[in-house]
Amino acid sequence: MAENTMNLNIKLDELDDYHCTECGGIQFAPIFGIKVIGAIQSPTGRAGSLHHQMGFMCSGCGAAKTIVDISNECKKAADNSAKSLIEIPYRVVTEGEEGKKE
Ligand SMILES: [Zn+2]
Asked: How far is the CA of 64 from the centre of ligand 1 (A)?
């Protein structure tokens, strides 16, 4: 196991579901974008395609959101939840601050 990983035992049934903001649904399908890659750009030297996940689409109504948008909405919901009352202290280091002595 890598040095900077941490295992958490989280029971999924104890976590709140993310709901579609349009219909309230809780099931989502991944949305992939597909890029055309030329032979010169390809690590194999052969032209083809690359796919990358762009977001999720609600299985109920088809509303689509990016992973970043969903993550931000979940963060907001967690921040407003009583489950976030125990906060882990942390310090944000801004660019150029790393070498400063206090
Ligand atoms: Zn929906």
From this structure: 8
Residues within 5 Å of ion ligand 1, judged at the Cβ atom: 20, 22-23, 25, 58, 60-61, 63
Per DSSP, 83 falls in state G
Of the pLDDT bands very low, low, confident and very high (cuts 50, 70, 90), residue 102 is very low
| Nearest Cα residue to 56 out of 4, 21, 82 | 21
3-class DSSP state for residue 93? coil
In the chain, where are the structural domains located?
Answer: 26-79
Q: Fill in the amino acid letter for 6.
A: M
For 46-87, the pLDDT digits (tens) are 999 999 999 999 999 999 999 999 999 999 988 887 655 555
